[in-house]
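Colleagues,

For the teaching module next term, I've prepared a clean inverse folding example: a structure given as tokens, and then the sequence designed for it. I'd like students to try predicting residues themselves before seeing the answer, so please don't circulate the second half yet.
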């Protein structure tokens, strides 16, 4: 319901923000006691070029939040198009979400780097900031890499794949040749 504090209805907010197509990531962390955690996140953005920073918006109810704050480190795994099951697993599954998954600890953070991801960024948590019912994690990127693969996308509550629309570059002179 819209009210004085919220002029935009919840449903409208979800409809509008769900129209912003995003990639899908799994944010991972190595806990101080040696265990590892991770959750699916699409509220991820590049933040700064100098220094290299990114941000992740995490629900204040996330069970990973305190572990990331305590570790002071995390890794953003950007998922490839064939990793939809992993996205679902890290959004819903209770217990060990890493069961059956191939991963390695990041050299800089110890946070899991998931095999087959499109790209990853190992981060040091440099700041946090409250934003309503979410917390914004600001991370300085310590190590990162990207591979050739197609991205997994999320749009209006559904997963999808990227269909590159490349406008043909036509030189005016070419038009005469074609004609
Ligand atoms: C496609 C997708 C994107 C999501 N993006 C976020 C996000 O950006 N931030 C967030 O806090 N939760 C996000 N979630 C929900 C979390 O993955 C989910 O609540 C998860 O269970 C949280 O795990 P945790 O409590 O162990 O941290 C997303 C879920 C899906 C399916």
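(Answer key — instructors only)
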């Amino acid at each position: 319901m819209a009210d004085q504090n919220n002029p935009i209805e919840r449903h409208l907010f979800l409809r509008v923000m769900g129209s912003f197509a995003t990639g899908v990531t799994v944010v991972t962390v190595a806990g101080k006691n040696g265990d590892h955690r991770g959750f699916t996140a699409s509220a991820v953005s590049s933040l700064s070029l100098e220094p290299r920073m990114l941000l992740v918006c995490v629900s204040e109810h996330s069970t990973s939040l305190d572990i990331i704050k305590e570790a002071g480190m995390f890794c953003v795994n950007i998922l490839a198009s064939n990793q939809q099951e992993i996205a679902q697993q890290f959004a819903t599954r209770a217990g060990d979400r890493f069961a059956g998954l191939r991963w390695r600890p990041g050299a800089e953070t110890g946070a899991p780097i998931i095999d087959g991801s499109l790209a990853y960024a190992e981060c040091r948590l440099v700041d946090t900031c409250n934003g309503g019912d979410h917390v914004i994690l600001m991370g300085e990127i310590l190590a990162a890499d990207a591979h050739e693969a197609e991205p997994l996308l999320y749009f209006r509550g559904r997963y999808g794949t990227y269909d590159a629309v490349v406008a043909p570059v036509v030189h005016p002179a070419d038009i005469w040749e074609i004609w």
